[in-house]
Sequence to fold (168 residues):
Amino acid sequence: MQISMYQASVPRLANILENLANILDKAQAHADAHEIDVATLMAWRLAPDMYPFSKQVQIACDKARSVVARLARMEVPYYEDDETTLAALKVRIARTVAFIRSVPPQQIDGTEDDEIVLPVTGKETRYTGMQLLLGHSMPNVYFHTTTAYNILRQNGVAIGKRDFLGNP
Fold:
C-alpha cells in the first residue's frame, strides 16, 4: 500500500494542530486556576534567542498552511501575527485546520516531484514536493509545536505525551 502526499500531509498536520488546540485549553485552565498572567505566558521563551510561546504556535500554523497551499499550487493565506491570548491562538489554529482541510486530495496527490521554490533566509531554495513536505515543513511544524508544548510544561501546565500525540 502506498501513502499519498495528501495522506502524508493534511490529516497529519490537522491532527497535530488540533492536539495543540486541546493543549491550549489545558494551558488556559492552568492559567485561570493559578492566576497566571497570560501575557507573560505568551511571551515566555525557553532561551533568550528563541521565539516566544505565541510565535511558536503562529509558526506551526504558518508552516502547515504554507506547505498545503504550495503543494496545491494555491496562494498561501496570510494571517496577521496579532494574537495576544490563548483563545486567539486557538482561533488561528482553527482557521489553519479549516483551510488545510478545504484543499481536495487531488490537488495535493501526485506532487512528490513537483519543483517548489521558496525564499529561505533570503535566498531561493528549490525543493521537490516530497522534500518540502517531509524534509522541511513537517519537521518545522513538529519542532514549533514541541517547543510550545515544552514552554507550557516548563510553566507547570499538566500535559503529557498523550496530549501531544492525541488520537493519531
